[in-house]
Amino acid sequence: MTHASTETSIPKPEQLAELVRRHIPDAQVEVGLFAGDDHFEMHVVSAAFAGKNRVAQHKMVYAALGDHMRQRVHALALTTSTPQ
Fold first, then answer.
1. Which of 20, 36, 64, 80 has the fewest CB atoms within 10 Å, measured from its CB?
2. For the segment 57-80, what is each residue's pLDDT rounded down to a tens digit?
3. Residue 19 maps to which CATH number?
4. Phi (first) and psi of residue 8, to 5 degrees
5. Is residue 9 within 8 Å of residue 72, measured between CB atoms?
6. Which of 15, 23, 10 minimizes the C-alpha distance to 42?
7. Count of domains observed in the chain
8. Which residue range forms the structural domain that includes residue 25?
9. pTM of the complete model
10. For the chain, what is the largest distance between any 2 Cα atoms, rounded to a whole number of angstroms?
């Protein structure tokens, strides 16, 4: 039963940042809440985004977040960029 409650719990901002860092190792990730506890804003900077359009960059982040995007994160305001 504990496993099920963990599966549906809303992640903390740092947990989401860590998921992205695991999949995009050089990523600089900032995550915050902007409304309630399941509406997040995230900015990700990574050299891995070089040469990719914004949609492809966002897909990389969504892939890193996996099931969290389908089940636990109600909204994500996402911006991505390459290092300056």
1. 36
2. 999 999 999 988 878 888 899 999
3. 3.30.300.90
4. -105, 0
5. yes
6. 15
7. 1
8. 2-81
9. 0.85
10. 47
